[in-house]
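Technical appendix A lists one of the benchmark inputs used to test multi-chain prediction within the project. The record comprises three sequence entries:
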Amino acid sequence: MGLGAYYDNYILVLIFMLLGVALPVVSLTFGRFVRPKNPYAEKITTYESGIQPEGDAQVRYHVAYYIVALEFIIFDVETVFLIPWAVTLDQLGWVGLNLMLIFIAILALGLAYSWKKKVLEWN
Amino acid sequence: MTGQMIFFIIFALIAITGAVLIIALKRISHRVVSMAFSFMAVAALYFLLGAEFIGIIQIMVYVGAITILFVFGMMMTDHRNFSFGPDPRKWQQALSFVGVATLLGLMLYGISTLDMHESTQPFVGSVEAIGLELYGHYFIAFLGSAFLLTSALIGAIVIARKEAD
Amino acid sequence: MDYLLMFLYAVAVLMVLLGGVTFAILAERKVIGAMQLRPGPNRHGPWGVFQTIADVLKLLLKEDVIPANADKKIFVLAPVLAFAPAFSVMAVLVYSSTVGGADINIGVIYFLGVSSITMLGVLMGGWSSNNKYALFGSIRGVAQMVSYELPLILSIIGVIIMVGSLNLTDIVNYQANMGMWFIVPQFLGFAVYMISSIAELNRSPFDLPEAESELVAGFFTEYSGFRFAMFMLAEYTYAIAIAGLATTLFLGGWLGPAFLPEIVWFMLKVVAVMFIWFWLTATLPRARVDQLMNFGWKVLIPVALLNIVLTSIYKVWMG
């Protein structure tokens, strides 16, 4: 495939992205002319079911979420490795299949470890 | 000036601006957002080079996963009540400036003397080529990366469990 | 001239999409209403067809409240970060053998990679509001989306192994040559895809980030007026896009008997997938957080990996 067709396709992608940004920006800018603007202290306080907000919302959060994000990155990279393998599997044949089975087995070991350590448990 | 060059300059400027804002902005949440924009601009540069697979992986892993990890890390720490201490002294600033300038000069020198001949035919990197190289010639490195990922996972769990208990 | 044509195509897709979202919202309310033996919206126009349009006009005329404690810059940026990627993924969808968007070699992965940016919008919206409900909603939501994105990608890899290409047109053509839709040989993958796409979209029964009985409105609690509308629009745009990808990958895209045009077949299949989601919304109670996470990591990911192993053995065996 020539570079010209390649760039043309990505220009279409770029047009979609710019339109996706433009729609919220334009509609909110023009909405300014039709919507009222009357903020006062009570209206712009943080909503907390109608009572006075208690303390700050941006508190320290539990470490469990951080571990989930870490596991996500590890397995995300694994899936990234799986994609070129899946595309070329018919050329790689049995060697490629065994290679990936070993790879999946090693990573399943990591999943089993986190399973056993109860990282995936939520309470 | 070709269209390619114009897009390159736009994306390069976004990438550099984002990178500078990561250290210049005051609040950590703003820094994380500018980091995401910097990553996206780098991905766009990959697309411009014809490396579409690497570009989309840059978005998937860096914007979609590593930025999320940073935000969770930000939420986990007590970053609001933490200050970075007084400004560094004058001579420290001067020293770091000299160091950075030297590094930049070396890199620019290296790039300018690099012998990069233009390829005769335009080339679009394909996923098939990456797959065949990776699982054909470099399969030992590939299996090594599996061990690296697993040990990273186990290490992270061990450290985080110690913190939680 | 070519670029003008591209621009017109993008605008046309946007217009059709806005109409589609309008009627998807109405259809959801009507379908759930009918299943629960109530009429649903029926005041504006015949069968309430103008209900959503009235809602949008109302939202346009509402004041745009930004809380004093909010992080204003990110608060403003978050709806854009949620909508732009959800719309950008439509660029690669192929609607028929003649009508289609960008014909890039990495179609499927482009879709998944760009849609993962949506998470950043959710997280930033919840964090910048400086509201407890919003923060809980966004953290729950992102933990859930992160856990279910893996089975979503893994379920697609079975299809990629069979086809040997990431291009959406190639995938549909392969199904045409095979004479069978991938829902049959890849049923395991289809099941995993459907379940994890519901969690990705924060739809019931996995709508914990927006659990209105406990979290008010979840991560967009503090959003009002048209910014709120943007979040809703992003959600439904993403839903239509995911249904479109399901159609392309598992339901044969535009393939179908010739008495209807190809593009109509595509739309009908998208509608069918979305109907299944509405049905589940009307039927199932909400899952708990621990059930949700356990199910994702301990059931869906192993099942998706099993599907990959079985498919690859089959593929190599058959040559």
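Chain B touches chain C through 23 residues (CB under 8 Å). The two ends of chain B are 60 Å apart (CA to CA). Comparable benchmark entries are summarised in Table A2.
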